Amino acid sequence: MTKNIILAFSLILTIVACSKKVAVIDPQEEQVQSKVTETKSLTEIPKDERLISGVLENGMKYYIQQNAKPENRAELRLVVDAGSVLEDEDQLGLAHFVEHMAFNGTKNFNKQELVNYLESVGTRFGPDLNAYTSFDETVYMLQVRTDSMELFDKGMLIISDWASGVSFEHQEIDKERGVVESEWRSRLSPEQRMQKITFPILYEGSRYAERLPIGDPEIINNADYSSVKRFYRDWYRPDLMAVVVVGDIDPMDVESKIKSLFSPIPQPLSPRNRERYNVPAVPGTSVAIASDKEASFTNVQIMTKLPKIKTKDLDDYRESLKRSMYNGMLSARLSEIGQEANPPFIFASSGYGGNVGDIDAYSSFAMVPEGKADEALERLLVENKRVLDHGFTEGELERQKKRMMESAERRYKEMDKTNSGSLAMRYVYHHLNDSPIPSPAQIVELYEKYLPNIDVYEVNALPEQWITDENRVVVITGPEKQSNPLPTEDEVRAILEKASSISLEPYEDEVIEGPLLDVELSTVAIEKEILNEATNILQLTLANGVKVNLKSTDFKNNEVLLSATSEGGSSLYSDEEYFNAYAAASIVRESGIGKFTNVQLQKLMSGKSANVSPFIGSYSEGMSGYATPEDVEEMFKMVYLYFTDIRNDKEAFESYITKQLGIYENLKANPNFYFSDYVNKIKYRNNPRVGFPSEQKWKSVNHEEALTMYKDRFADASDFTFTIVGAFDVEEMKMLTQKYLGNLPSINREETYNDLGLIPISGNINKRIKKGEAPKTQVQMYYHGPFEYNEDNSYRLSSMIEYMRIKLREELREDKGGVYGVNIYGGGSKMPNEVYNITISFNSDPGRTDELIEAAKAVIQTAKREGPSEEDLNKVKEIQRQAKIKNMKENRYWSRQIESKIRYEQDLESIMMPAFELKLNSLTTEDIKDYARKYFSSNNYMQIVMDPADKPQN
């Protein structure tokens, strides 16, 4: 067994190894060996010094890192270097099927016992327990508690069972066929149909074009049990697997457990060759064009397939930094083009990155307004050629270096507060791709070493390797419309020819120097200051009436969050006027602030981390923002400018409207969007404020009126409440609020929102419509009615919904195998009316829809009649308890809770764990049964079903 412990032990091991060599190597050979070792150590990319890694005797790798965020939790991963590309002809889809079977019975957990056990200790199916299958890998993910060694050991046992002890009981295989088919069905879409046309051209001659992970439903439904087991036997073996454990653990203890649990897994005597499939080069440029009547968006992609680059040593690492610089600078240029008055695309990006198999790809992508595919294609080609001909400017490079350095330093400052899940995935990718795994501190050192010495000429040399018409594919997909057809292949090739010969001017880098805010502000007095000792929330009232809540935390080292709200919103305007207010804040964001356009503002903020976004909602207006502690004053300057100095930028307005038209013009051609819009129109009786905005609405927006409404909504800061949560010194933050928030305009008007009457239609509504080509039915079951809003009622209703989430999944997915997922969500609200709503939704086989609706109703009836068992009640409580424990260490959770408690005039103390435990401990089976009876009422029930267009009438 070999082992690599990258801590102080690494130095000891090196010394021991060298001391052994002295006795057997002559001095000359020792000198040569020493130079080789020194050279290697100087060229190796450092690994995170906190990592313990190794290889067991059977070939299985492991990665272990201690990390205390979140506390008393660990993230476990089982990484299998095998995916759908390895499937035999009779196994298409079975790599993914095997992944499903890992949750349906193992050596130590019979049938559904695994999920039942994890839910009983507070693990949520989905967020905390999940897996995915791709072309070349399958990865299992589990978050476990570490406050009990028994719980952690059970988690490790589960990972071990997944690696070598999946049961594959025939009855469970047959039940899971329906679940996997339902997942396949849920993914049927216009994008999937177009992909079936474009993928064989993108990956011509490659196995990747024939092995999409979702597979073939015929094989999924009819595969022999032996075919399923064969995939598991062939590829789930130690030399292809790794175990990752990151969290609040003792690394040495975990290493011992890994050796004990995973060393006994045998390596096959005659293992199948794990072939690495290639994507063969195709001469010239291929063109793939696909359209679909249900497509909502037009997309353009140019992809040049290139040999995969491995980042093996420091020279390679330096090259990877150059590629990152290139990607960032070109994407910034494309973003700037996207803000032109009549932009050729809604969104665009370009750059070099990994792809499948043995290739990387240089890709340019654009999401395009209808009818602009040819223009967007030409513009992508032109901007790439502009870089090829003239390169980037020194100013662009310096800004990109600042952005990269700021990002690296931000990660370094959060080094001890980084979530274990993101760290675990780094090691997943290292096992699969041998990607570098330096620590945040080491990354900063590498950036400081290399970034200053990379000049613009080096970066400008890169496109010569990438921009070529060889092994290139142009892909255009979009709506199938006679009035606006996509370009033909001949037209595409003509655009390629034209763009290759065009003469271009260099890019002009327009930059405005100067501070973001160039006025001096005085400090304004604090009129009232109250400390809530239970929560350590400081409440301020400034002289201009602005109210501020401050909560200093240590959850993150480098995060400060800001939110601000005031009642009113677009409800204060008539149905004929409101859409100007709806669009106003977005128009302002697109226009920039002060003397800076939005493009200039992004350039000015390079190397800084601060942002503010104003909004105008239906019943309130406000702002949200974030910053690092170093840049928090920049955030306050933005707040001040969004209140006092917005820009009237006609070009930005036209750009925004053009892009919104491009997004919404074909949205309802997609059955999913159509169904959502249809449900809302029925629910709210065709209220003009509900549903997707029409083309007519977007064209009706008046720029001047929108700005006037924005100015009115932000004319009086005295009715705004600001909440600031994060890593800051309270006294310093008080001074910043006095300076920037204290000088916001104040006219002391008293306002509230208007009740728009947006209460769902009463009575029993049952609608069934037909739409869509895919053989799937969408179901929405909606319960609603009046609600007495208070904290206890709200908690019990959410508890009942949590219980129903468990039981609906058990019945519709696990027992009946009829759905991939069933969603249930809802709750009570206080403003603008005290009402509740509960939505149950799922997709199904059209032939099983009525059966599954009745099954869902039967679950509801059982809940009304019997309520939960003690086991299920405890599951609900433990899921809620564990979620609350994690949330209490999150800045965003605190920000939302403070805002909610203030708005609804509730005690801030109710945020705290003791208050929550009182509610939790008081919850009974009778509560959930009573709430099911009361709130699953047929008095106000809406059931809407959308069948495929070709489904015959019953």
Describe the protein in words:
With 954 residues, the protein is an alpha+beta fold. It folds into 5 domains: 2-43, no CATH class; 54-189 and 199-262, Cytochrome Bc1 Complex, Chain A, domain 1; 285-491, Cytochrome Bc1 Complex, Chain A, domain 1 (2-Layer Sandwich), CATH 3.30.830; 526-741, 2-Layer Sandwich (Cytochrome Bc1 Complex, Chain A, domain 1); 764-947, Cytochrome Bc1 Complex, Chain A, domain 1. The strands form 4 sheets. A 7-stranded mixed beta sheet has the order 1-2-3-7-4-6-5, with helices on both faces. A 7-stranded mixed beta sheet has the order 13-14-15-19-16-18-17, with helices on both faces. Strands 8-12-9-11-10 form a 5-stranded mixed beta sheet, with helices on both faces. The chain is globular, with a radius of gyration of 30 Å. Residues 1-40 have low confidence and may be disordered.
Shape: globular
Percentage of β-strand residues: 15-25%
- What is the CATH architecture term of the largest domain? 2-Layer Sandwich
Would you tell me the overall average pLDDT?
A: 94
- CATH class of the largest domain reads Alpha Beta
- Through-space gap between termini: 66 Å
The low-pLDDT segments are 1-40
**CATH homologous superfamily (4th level) name of the largest domain:** Metalloenzyme, LuxS/M16 peptidase-like
Q: Could you tell me the radius of gyration in angstroms? A: 30 Å
**Structure annotation, total helices:** 32
Largest sheet: 7 strands, mixed
| Total E-strand runs | 24
Strand order of the largest sheet: 1-2-3-7-4-6-5
Q: What class would the helix/strand composition place it in?
A: alpha+beta
Number of domains: 5
